[in-house]
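Structure ticket #2291
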Amino acid sequence: MIPGPGGPEGDDVELSEVIRRRRMIRSFAAEPIDPALVDRLLAAALRAPTAGNTRGVAWLVLTGAETATYWEHTSTPEWREAYGRRFAGMSRAPVVALSLCSPAAYVNRYGEPDKLGSGLGPTELGEGGEAAWPVPFWFGDAAFSTMLLLLGAVDAGLAAAFLGAFRGPELLGALGVPDSWRLFGAVLLGRPDGNDVPSPSLGRRPDPGAGAVHRSRW
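Resolution: structure written out below.
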């Protein structure tokens, strides 16, 4: 069972059912979401794995009229006009939660005694700094936390969508986020209004597991 918020009647939902029901919904009702519920979902999301117990992931939550700042800095008037119906549906989401991560936190953590010698610590310690990381753990940790939020939304009877970060620096600057933080993406939260238009990408690969699991050798 998934503990925590529960479904609309407060009942827990089997994990397999939560995973099966998870979808990206792009058309929301403007109905506000209880802030306490949002807090519980984010608290659960922050229990995601984190490399070296760095805890270099944070969330910045915009609600109600505040969400206009997100759309102002991440979309153009031309895009909003071209995708009018889709934009209208997404912009009604009453909550926009920004998934943030701090590369500096991970670099500094991997310069501590138990990680020193990995080559991933600060350059002032003779290590490679951020550029030395073959896989940026900060984005992985942000993705783990984001996935928990998406699953938690299903468990709570809400709809959600993940939007990639294409104009992160401008948005974070407008919101006063320190320069050391990066935007991984945004999660829209709300209740579906029943007018969702499925993404055309859904028809690209009907079987999500086809060819994705290999054993012994590729």
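Closing remark: Residues 5 and 37 are 7 Å apart (CA to CA).
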